[in-house]
Structure formats: C-alpha cells, structure tokens
Amino acid sequence: MKNNRYSLQRTAAIGMLAALSYVVFTFLQIKISLPGGDATSIHLGNAVCVLGALVMGGFAGGLGGAIGMTIGDLLDPIYIIYAPKTFVLKLCIGLLTGLVAHRLGKIETSDDPKHVFRWSLLGAVAGLGFNVVFDPLLGYFYKLVILGKPAAELTLAWNIGATAINAVISTVAAVAVYLALRPVLRRAGIARKLAPAYGRMDRA
Predict the structure, then answer these.
(1) What's the CA dihedral at 137, 142, 144, 146 to 10 degrees?
(2) Which of 53, 55, 122, 196 qualifies as a cystine partner to 98, CB 3.0-4.6 A?
(3) Distance from CA of residue 71 to its chain's centroid?
(4) Could you tell me which residue, 155 or 73, shows the higher pLDDT?
(5) What percentage of the chain has pLDDT greater than the value 90?
(6) Does the CA dihedral 121-126-128-133 come out positive or negative?
(7) Is 153 left (phi over 0), alpha (psi -120 to 50) or beta?
(8) Does residue 55 contact residue 191 with C-beta atoms inside 8 Å?
(9) 38-42/30-34 β-pairing
(10) DSSP designation for 188
(11) What is the pTM of this model?
C-alpha cells in the first residue's frame, strides 16, 4: 500500500513536470527562424528536465521533461518532425543529471548545503553538457540523413549557439530553483516522497 502511494505521488509529479516543461518551452521561448524553413529557439525547457531530475531522480525528471517538450514539438508545425529526437535527448538530460547528482553525489540524503550545491551543479552541467554536444550533432544527422534537408550544414552553427546559451541559462535557473525549493520540500515532507527509490530521505 505504501509503495502504491509512492508510485502514485511520483506519477502525479511527473505529469505536473510534463505540463510545466510544455508551458515553459512553448510560451516562454524566443524562436529564431533559420534557412530552409527551419528554426531554433532560446528557452528554459531543459531547466525543467534538470530540476525534475534533481528533485525526483534521473528517470522520473527526464521523463517528465521529455514528455512535455515532445508534446510541444508535436503541436508546432516547424518542430513536429523533431519530436522523436527531442524525447530521447531530454530523457538523457534527466538521466545524466540524476546519475551525477543522486548516484554519485547522493544529494537526497545530504544536510551539507555546499555538498548539495556542488553536486547539483555538477549534475546539471553533466546533463546539459551532453545536450550541448549531442543535440546539434544528432540534429545535423537527423536533418541530413533522415529528412534529407540540404540546409542542415547552414543551421548547424545556429543550433550549436542556441543550445549552448540554453545550457548556461538552464543550469543557473535549475540549480537556483532547486536550492530554493529543497528546504521547503524537506520541511513539508514532500522531498522524501518524491526522492528516487534508491535514496529516499528518511527525514523531513
């Protein structure tokens, strides 16, 4: 019964995370038109993936962010063709952030603010650093090989620049929000309920 409540709470949180990432990505983005009818954007959608991974662990956080941003792609006539790529990459952001912050840094059980900050930052850098490299790279091959777009090379530099900007902004935003939110969640007993199963906090 307790495990069922734990699963239900995490499922609801993943749904809320998906909704938040969709709203942030869709309505709080600066879209930049590119050659060939393509586009890139400056947004904070990736920050939601990282924040979710810091709060709930890599898979849950990445899944919520991936679902929300994929829905955003599916509802946008320009981005719709990139929805499969988006889902995979955003899930990976969460997985890598969670791996570093929780598996290695064990932030969910630490009471040392400096330790939590250091490993939260390292987790965010790992997840978003992966995205900086593989989002433009995978996007280039996706456009060139799968979509057959001759403008793939023309948009590569723009995609690299936008992804790098997004990474810096998302790192700062996600870590700052997590550090502000963490004490509140712990005092309310919510952090323990949402923490990854391999390292749930026993203290409120």
Answers:
(1) 160
(2) 53
(3) 14
(4) 73
(5) 67
(6) positive
(7) alpha
(8) yes
(9) antiparallel
(10) T
(11) 0.89
Tokens of 150: 């001759």
Q: How far is CA 90 from CA 120, 157, 180, 196, in A?
A: 17, 20, 23, 18
pLDDT at 204: 31
Q: Which CATH architecture has domain 2-199?
A: Orthogonal Bundle (1.10)
Tokens describing residue 126: 């790992």
- List the domain boundaries for the chain: 2-199
Mean pLDDT, rounded, for 165-194:
92
Q: Is residue 60 a contact partner of residue 196, using CB atoms and an 8 Å limit?
A: yes
Residue 172, H or E segment: helix 152-187
Mean pLDDT of 158-173: 95
Q: How confident is the model at residue 202 (pLDDT cuts 50, 70, 90)?
A: very low
Element spanning 203, H or E: none
Of residues 111 and 191, more confidently modeled: 111
